[in-house]
């Protein structure tokens, strides 16, 4: 409006409808600033009122530098997607490395198992041989004992018979 009157040209019913509707805090602050500016006696007072209004706006809203724009959000999203892919790649590398290590451990276990089975078979064979040798030695001792016991028994019987004759 050229003359600065906000309500000029509005019908009285429209003015009453606007007055009955609740005003938002931002709108009431704007109207209050308008009224103060129109009632201000000089430019210095108007400048002070405008500066105070800016202070109120700065206090009411966060710093514009702190606000994230769609570009910032998209940039962060792309950066996060890139980091996610890097983490996935690192996980795949770790998984492959772990699979190789697991396979290596399995192979080592198989080798150890085969080596142990061979050692067990070798020990079994040695034990069988030792058992066979012990059995043979027991048989030989048994035979040797019989060789000594039978003549000793005859000698004892003869000695007892000689003693019986002497008595």
Verbal overview:
- By secondary structure, the chain is mainly alpha-helical.
- It has a domain at 23-64.
- The protein has helices spanning 12-20, 25-39, 43-60, 70-166.
- The radius of gyration is 57 Å and the shape is rod-shaped.
- Residues 81-144 form a coiled coil.
- Keywords: Coiled coil, Membrane, Transmembrane, Transmembrane helix.
- One of its GO terms (cellular component) is membrane.
* Overall pLDDT score: 83
Low-confidence stretches: 1-23
Strand content: under 5%
Number of continuous helical runs: 4
Query: In angstroms, what separates the terminal alpha carbons?
Result: 169 Å
User: What string gives the helices and strands in order?
Assistant: HHHH
Outline: rod-shaped
Q: Quick one: how many beta strands?
A: 0
Task: Supply Rg.
Answer: 57 Å
Helix content: over 70%
How many strands, what sense, and barrel or not for the largest sheet? none
The computed structural class is mainly alpha
List keywords for this structure.
single chain; 167 residues; mainly alpha; 4 helices; disordered N terminus
Would you summarize the structure shown here?
This protein has 167 residues and is mainly α.
Record the SSE blueprint.
Blueprint: H1 12-20, H2 25-39, H3 43-60, H4 70-166
Coiled coil: 81-144
Organism: Thiocystis violascens (strain ATCC 17096 / DSM 198 / 6111)
Main location: membrane
């Amino acid at each position: 409006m050229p003359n600065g009157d906000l309500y000029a040209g509005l019908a009285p019913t429209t003015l009453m409808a606007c007055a009955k509707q609740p005003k938002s805090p931002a709108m009431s602050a704007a109207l209050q600033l308008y009224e103060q500016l129109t009632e201000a006696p000089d430019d210095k007072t108007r400048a002070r009122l405008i500066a105070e209004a800016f202070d109120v706006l700065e206090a009411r809203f966060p710093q514009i530098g702190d606000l994230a724009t769609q570009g910032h959000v998209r940039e962060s999203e792309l950066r996060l997607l890139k980091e996610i892919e890097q983490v996935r790649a690192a996980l795949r590398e770790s998984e492959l490395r772990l699979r190789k290590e697991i396979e290596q451990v399995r192979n080592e276990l198989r080798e150890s198992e085969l080596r142990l089975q061979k050692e067990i078979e070798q020990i079994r064979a040695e034990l069988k041989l030792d058992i066979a040798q012990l059995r043979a030695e027991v048989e030989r001792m048994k035979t040797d004992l019989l060789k000594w016991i039978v003549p000793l028994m005859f000698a004892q019987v003869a000695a007892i018979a000689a003693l019986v004759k002497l008595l």
